[in-house]
Design goal:
This protein folds into 2 domains: about 170 residues, FAD/NAD(P)-binding domain; about 140 residues, FAD/NAD(P)-binding domain (3-Layer(bba) Sandwich). It contains 9 helices and 24 strands. The strands form 8 sheets. It has a 5-stranded parallel β-sheet, with helices on one face. A 4-stranded parallel β-sheet has the order 13-12-11-17. Helix 1 links the parallel strand 1 and strand 2. It is globular. The chain binds flavin-adenine dinucleotide. The site of flavin-adenine dinucleotide has 35 residues, from helix 1, strand 2, helix 2, helix 8 and strand 22.
Amino acid sequence: MRILVLGAGFGGLELTTTLAEEFGGELEITLIDKTESFVFGFSKLDVMFGRVTEEHVKHQYADFVKPGVKFVQAEITRIDGAARRVETSAGEFEADILVVGLGADLDCSVTPGLATGANEFYTEAGAFAMREKIAAFGGGNVVIGVISAPFKCPPAPSETALLMHDQLVKSGLRDTSTISLVMPFGRPIPPSPDASAALLEAFAQRDISWRPQTAIVSVDDARGVATTEDGTEIPYDLFLGVPHHRAPAVVLASDISENGWIPVDPLTLETPIDGVYAVGDVAAVGTPRAGVFAEGQAKAAAASIAARIRGEASDTKYDGHGVCYLEFGEEQVGMVDVTFFGEDKTATLTGPSEQYVADKTEFGTSRIKRWFGNDWVAT
Ligand SMILES: Cc1cc2nc3c(=O)[nH]c(=O)nc-3n(C[C@H](O)[C@H](O)[C@H](O)COP(=O)(O)OP(=O)(O)OC[C@H]3O[C@@H](n4cnc5c(N)ncnc54)[C@H](O)[C@@H]3O)c2cc1C
């Protein structure tokens, strides 16, 4: 049985690991990704704020060694869902089961003045370059701006505002600086009223200006202004943007996308095409775009695929459950426990406290051990 997994991100790594564990070398699994290493989303913030180096957060796919699994570093250039076939820079691949975990791409082109690696912090290049900008920043107006929804990891812009506060305090620049968080929604984390309330309190305590229901339509680094939908200009000396998200172009051009993403049965992660699954940020599941949800979806899809291989009925249903750690700064982390599907829908915040700092570290350490077999501590 040939399984083709597109994308070695949170979803692809977990799904491949689960199937390899369950079937040993019985399956022929090919995992394809265009990059040579995996980086956790939260590591981008760690690098940006100078906690660790870029090298420390890159996990090489060469270390992803599992029975029956072949990793291919290649760009996927065409997907034919119906034929379960893909074209890549390393040739064609065909499978009995195709799993798409290609994540969300970041599209700066819809926002004039926003540029990858320059004034955004969501790509690897952007976050890593921001490290130098933040280190060299001499004080002034800092603006963190989310362009549109959906975007990955709803807490990340708020975390960035709080960590920026710490950074400026540490460098003695807080009194001569302002921090503003601009979002086109009513609360900082739309799915969690609980966590949003705690964040608004933290912003107020730290004099971080919260500008809800405000959409930024362009930025101009030369003039140092971000312009909102109604023409208001927000001055900045340092802009940290969250670009517009969309499915990768190769997905949009294929027969597996619909309305901009890949439609799936949220309980099984099956697409309408037989033998084709989609997990993580690229799939329209109804959960926020975040690694924990991609991982949960990967587990559910793997269970469904395993049952299919054995010719059994699968009773595994994805429950939309995830635990997100939220950096409040000042060495405090909160824990948001979210369940999206089923009867017990919750989105509660516990903490922030020091205890969750250790839990967040363990979250990263355990995944790197499981996927890459390496010992690693995030910071
Ligand atoms: C600043 C920041 C902080 C975050 N913090 C957290 C957090 O604390 N907790 C959390 O759960 N989530 C967090 N996230 C979100 C998390 O990183 C993503 O939601 C998660 O990685 C999604 O997993 P995925 O498998 O769907 O996609 P990804 O992990 O994005 O993986 C997709 C893979 O597909 C590959 N790919 C794409 N197109 C092609 C192509 N054409 N050919 C070949 N390969 C291709 C990419 O190289 C990539 O490796 C954060 C994100 C950011 C930006």
